[in-house]
Design goal:
430 residues; mainly beta; Lipoxygenase-1; 2 domains; seven-stranded mixed beta sheet; 3 helices; 24 strands; Stress/Tellurium_Resist; Tellurite resistance protein TerA
Length: 430
Amino acid sequence: MLKGSNVPVSARAVRVEIGWNTSAGAPDVDASALLLKDGRVRSDDDFVFYNQARHASGAVRHEGKQPAGATVVDRIGVDLADVEQEIEKVVLAASADGGTFGQVPGLHIRVLDADSGAEVARFDSEDATSETAFVVGELYRRQGAWKFRAVGQGYATGLAGLATDFGISVDDEPAPAAAPTPPPARPATPPPPAPAPVTPPAPVQTPPAASGGSPIRLSKITLTKDAPAISLAKQGATSGQLRVNLNWQQRSAGAAPKQSKWKDRIAKAMGGGLDLDLCALFELSDGRKGVIQALGNAFGSLHQPPYMHLDGDDRTGAVSSGENLTVNLDHAKELRRVVLFVTIYSGATSFQDLDATVTLTPERGAPVEFFLDECNVPSPVCVLATLTQQNGELVVNREARYLVPDKGVSPQRTVDHAYGFGMQWTPGRK
């Protein structure tokens, strides 16, 4: 599509993929959506992004990132048939974290039929320069039907500027320190009044949207090899629930015979789905140890030991919300350590052709995300992260560590040996 052009969208629901090519020095990109009436949001609830992943209506959802080799896509799901009638437009935007869109190669947006997977529209943005936020496209109603327009207009004020422009109340300041600040001393001589600016900025004519709650926080944390750890307490995540999400997909690049074998395996497994299992080894403060996993229906419990619960067993990952494990941070002091890991249950034998994203989202504080490194060993198990007590605080440490079990040794026992739990293991099944 050309910039400014539009196409009809007849699909009942669509999956929007905002994608880009990864390269050295390129900033990370985040997708977001704004539901508009008369050009503005009705409230802060009409902003869907990584810190507010689901609209109250359920019609618009931030579904997370999927790396695929040299490309990454961040996905927004939109059930067009369920979008409230008063919503006239769904703006599809992107923001650059740590740079400008002039440094982001291959920025594009694809609109896919959520049912068939067929591509409805694609727009490649090629003229970005100093912008740090971008309206890439929009879904809008016209005479009772939906259309998609390629927009390609940017902001130099980042996600906060874009959100504010559509009526969102933004509070992206860091959380205040716990210690009270003493009142400042009264100066001996009052300072002179500040001079009026030569050209005052034009005020926004329409009033801000009433959110009915706290302003939207835009902060997030990305763990890397160079900065692999973060204290949840220092981010304000000291209570409530912590949701650990794992999302994955098979790399689609290449058409070698190896790729064909992978497709055959996946087609035979679980009705066409690649099945990964999110698991956790835990040790409580009283010394008790155990495992959370779908095998043996060891789903755990949120309100009694081990204060963790595996929400279910997702056998697709790439087309749904992935696997989720919830941790009760109200009992964080009773968790001595937790090792989060993922195993391949069926559909593949190694992580060498898979990509995955891990996101930890607390009720309070910024979400923590990281990608798994590319696997270069025949590994069926990957340790994602650890949660450990350090000086009375629960600290997240990115591991992204691929393990190769010895012959006849299960992936679970391999993780146990690597992290010194010393538990007894018996065969299990779903």
